[in-house]
Design goal:
signal; CzcB_C; alpha+beta; 2 domains; six-stranded antiparallel beta barrel; four-stranded antiparallel beta sheet; OB fold (Dihydrolipoamide Acetyltransferase, E2P); conserved putative lor/sdh protein from methanococcus maripaludis s2 fold; transport; MFP_Cation_Efflux
Length: about 400
């Protein structure tokens, strides 16, 4: 009976506890849902991983890119922005070229110097002293040079002048006396006295001019004042240069050659020089067309001087400016002529060009190039027939990373 009472009490307690346990499990399941707690919680995605998994933006899709093989992918819109231009290569027989160092010089027949013939003090001319860049004409008075003498020289000149004055007075009286006795004296005697008198007058005028008269400095040729070393009141010694005049439309070029045979093998010549402003403005190298005048037959500093005349109207160059002379010989070689802007120099000194192989693909080629003239370069190795070489914007392609 007692055992039955204990069993009955246990059953009552289970009936009360079991609903409470079921309610607690239901709430716990509702709070956690269907989450799987057997795995660790995933970390939130970082900004870099999200950007890596994101699709390329419109800007990246239209930007120039360097591919793994070194070539460039350049979309059409970027090609238009960079103003890329290409040229179809064509093989031809081109002349061999030789580059020489040269300099601009004035034509001796169209230039001149104004020097002091004696020591003197400079005085301004009728229109003042000429300035740099001023155009003058042949025979124009540029300035006056008043002679200066030491006290000893001036004393000697005044002594000579006093002696001439005394002789002139005697000769004048002699002439008057002979004229009064002209009927009694031979005619030759009277004329000789008169001639002596006139000679003494001219001698006196010459000595006086040497003491006070100024010397006019005259322009020997027409042109532009390129050198002006004159200041009013400045004292110059004899043979000092006061002015130099050149004609900018008549210039010459002197180059030094180390092969005497070159004087008989010149077909054409061009002069070029570096000009950052010209290259930045129109991407062209300034040049001068030259005509060969002749070469010396005597070595000077282990080289033979070659003289060229600038053909046509010259550009903005200065006398004494260092230039590069490109001589085309009569010998020919096979190559491809491209503009100067097509070839780029690498840091190692190698020459390269960009070839347009596909619609949006550019490949860099190492080439062997020689200057052909002031505007073109001859490529003798590294290109093939009918390839499109970039002629404008090649330097911009080299900056694509």
């Amino acid at each position: 009976m007692k055992l039955f009472t204990m069993f009955k009490s246990t059953m009552k307690f289970s009936a009360v506890i079991l609903p409470l346990v079921l309610v607690a499990q239901f709430n716990l399941a509702k709070a956690h849902g269907d989450e799987d707690h057997s795995k660790k919680p995933a970390k939130p995605a970082t900004k870099s991983s999200a950007a890596a998994n994101a699709k390329p933006s419109i800007l990246d899709a239209t930007a120039a890119q360097r591919l793994s093989d070194g070539s460039l992918f350049v979309p059409k819109i970027v090609q238009r922005q960079l103003a890329l231009r290409t040229l179809l290569t064509e093989q031809a027989e081109l002349p061999n070229t030789i580059e020489l160092n040269g300099k601009i010089m004035a034509d001796p027949n169209a230039g001149g110097r104004v020097q002091a013939s004696q020591a003197g003090r400079l005085e301004a001319g009728p229109s003042g002293l000429p300035s740099l860049g001023q155009r003058v004409t042949k025979g124009q008075v540029l300035a006056y040079l008043r002679p200066v003498m030491t006290s000893l020289d001036r004393g000697n000149s005044q002594s000579i002048l006093a002696d001439i004055d005394s002789q002139l007075s005697i000769a004048e009286r002699k002439v008057h006396r002979f004229e009064q006795l002209s009927d009694a004296l031979p005619k030759a005697t009277v004329e000789a006295a008169r001639f002596d008198y006139e000679a003494l007058k001219k001698r006196k005028a010459a000595v006086e001019a040497s003491l006070s008269k100024s010397e006019a400095l005259i322009a020997p040729v027409s042109g532009i004042i390129s050198v002006a070393n004159a200041v009013t009141g400045q004292v110059f010694d004899a043979k000092e240069t006061l002015f130099e005049i050149i004609d900018p439309n008549r210039l010459m070029v002197e180059a030094l050659a180390y092969d005497p045979i070159l004087t008989t093998d010149i077909a054409n010549a061009t002069a070029t020089w570096n000009s950052s402003q010209a290259s930045a403005s129109n991407n062209l190298t300034p040049s001068l067309s030259l005509s060969f005048v002749g070469g010396g037959q005597q070595m000077r500093e282990q080289a033979i001087p070659l003289l060229f005349r600038v053909s046509g109207r010259s550009t903005a160059v200065a006398v004494g400016q260092a230039i590069k002379v490109i001589i085309q010989t009569k010998r020919l070689t096979t190559g491809y002529a491209v503009p100067n802007s097509s070839v780029i120099k690498l840091t190692g000194g190698e020459s390269v060009v960009w070839v347009h192989t596909e619609a949006e693909r550019f490949v860099q080629r190492k080439v062997v190039a020689h200057s052909l003239d002031g505007e073109r370069i001859s490529i003798v190795s590294g290109l093939k027939e009918d390839e499109r070489v970039v002629t404008s914007g090649a330097s911009l392609l080299a900056q694509v990373k």
